[in-house]
Amino acid sequence: MRQYIFFIVITLLKCSSSFSSATSQQTILSPPDECINPSPNNCTFYQLCLEPNYHCGSEGYPLGFGTYYCTKFLSSLSSFSHTGQQWISNVLLCLQRALIPDAIGAPDAAVGCKELEEKAFSSHPSCYVDAGFCTLPPEDWGGVVEVVGVEGLSALVSITRDVVRIMGMCGEVYEWIVEEEARELEKCAKRDYELLVNRVL
Predict the structure, then answer these.
(1) 161 belongs to a structural domain
(2) pLDDT attached to residue 151
């Protein structure tokens, strides 16, 4: 009888040990390779690596900005020059690499969606400029505006709170953006005036 009880105890201990080992293995699973080393010209990083950690939803940075604009830029590659296409590839990869700590849950990862958004936007100026935005052909500047819109590009500069740096490193582009905004406002004003005249007549 004692031998039988001893056998049961040993069996239970083995089962418990196996369960504990399996549980331990499950809790130390490594992040997917894409989260540690994002692939060029790929937008899955935001949905696969960031959104599961932060759950910011469709309006949050991972899905509402990261995935959205990454996909828009890649789908517009053919409208850019070779230099512009390389710039897009470098920028998209730079923006994702800046958020690797947040994707893998590193100690310095952002806490919450708001902090993640602030951290992400703070990486935009250096990624854009360091990749060569200032030296892009003017037609590629127009291509960028086509993707994000004049308002979107201006908002990006404003949100990052790095206007001085952008202007200092890329003054010609900033002036071009201002001119584009002025042209858009002029078009809107002219269209509104014509509508008003037509109504009067």
Answers:
(1) yes
(2) 60
The upper half-sphere exposure of residue 87, i.e. CA atoms within 13 Å in the direction of its Cβ, equals 23
Q: Where are the alpha helices (DSSP H) in the chain?
A: 2-27, 33-36, 44-45, 51-54, 68-75, 82-97, 100-103, 112-130, 138-148, 150-159, 163-169, 171-200
DSSP of 123-180: HHHHHHHHTTGGGS-HHHHHHHHHHH-HHHHHHHHHHTT-HHHHHHH-HHHHHHHHHH
Q: Is residue 177 part of a domain?
A: yes
Question: Per-residue pLDDT tens for 129-156?
Answer: 889 888 888 889 888 888 887 666 655 5
pLDDT of residue 193: 61
Q: Report yes or no on 190 lying in a domain.
A: yes
Q: Is position 6 within any domain?
A: no
**110 is in which domain, residue-wise?**
33-200
Where b means 16+ CB within 10 Å and e means fewer, 18-29 reads: eeeeeeeeeeee
Domain count, the chain: 1
Condensed to tens digits (0 to 9), the pLDDT of residues 5-23 reads 434 334 433 444 443 344 3
Measure the N-to-C terminal CA separation of the chain; round to a whole number of Å. 109
Give whole-number Cα distances, 46 to 35, 89, 124, 182, in Å.
Answer: 9, 16, 15, 34
**Token pair 């269209």: residue:** 191
Calculate the CA 131 to chain-centre distance: 16
